[in-house]
Design goal:
Fumarate Reductase Cytochrome B subunit, mainly alpha, elongated
């Protein structure tokens, strides 16, 4: 295959800012999940504290401080993500009418090997996944801010409000964890694997882009004209 072949050419899919916010939210989210779990007596119970380098997992105030630090990064990047894309008026990740039915069609192609419908920069299931992650993030941020306010400034906060915030935070945690696993699991599906390269380097092969995102490539070509 020649060096100038379509499969060797790369297309810029994400810029450095998008990659930074994606990985920043992902890594701080993982730290939040771990530190949140470790605030329960699970670390000592399941001998996690015995793992070299994980002695801190059984120290409540250490994990609480780590949780606060990660939450500052997490919330800050979520707000940055919203402001950044609103200012640029980028709506490509917002779900559109018909995304559910189109996602079903895509899933069917994995079984039948039939060609996928032409799509833009994001597949319909990616837009639905965006909402699936955004909802628990919203629950976690709002309930987390209430719980933090109670811990720092309002120790006598209304117990009903605190109870609701705790329940919402726990539900948000479960939903976020499930969405995280779903996100990773989706990347293991063969047709989706080239997306990993896109989030690691910001670029995907033109062959892949033309195959799964022809409308996006068409849009890029029209901008060049």
């Amino acid at each position: 295959m020649s060096s100038g072949s379509t499969s060797d050419k790369l297309v810029q899919r994400h810029n450095l800012i998008v990659m930074f916010e994606h990985w920043g939210i992902a890594l701080s989210g993982i730290v939040l999940l771990m530190s949140g779990i470790f605030q329960m007596p699970s670390a000592a119970r399941y001998k996690i504290t015995a793992i070299p380098g994980f002695w801190w997992s059984g120290e409540f105030f250490v994990t609480l401080k780590l949780h606060y630090i990660a939450s500052v990064v997490f919330v800050g990047l979520v707000l940055f993500h919203l402001v950044y894309h609103l200012l640029l008026k980028e709506w490509s990740m917002v779900p559109q009418r018909g995304d559910v039915s189109e996602s079903v069609k895509v899933l069917k192609t994995f079984i039948t090997n039939e060609p996928e419908p032409p799509f833009g920069k994001y597949l319909p299931e990616q837009r639905l996944a965006y909402v699936a992650i955004a909802v628990p993030v919203l629950l976690l941020v709002v309930s987390g801010l209430i719980k933090t306010w109670k811990n720092l400034y309002a120790p006598d906060m209304d117990r009903t409000l605190l109870l609701w915030a705790t329940w919402v935070h726990n539900v948000g945690f479960i939903l976020f964890f499930m969405a995280f696993l779903g996100h990773i699991g989706a990347l293991l599906i063969k047709p989706n694997r080239p997306m990993v390269r896109g989030m690691l380097t910001g670029k995907v092969s033109r062959e892949y882009a033309e195959h799964r995102h022809p409308l996006w490539i068409q849009e890029l070509e029209e901008k060049k004209e």
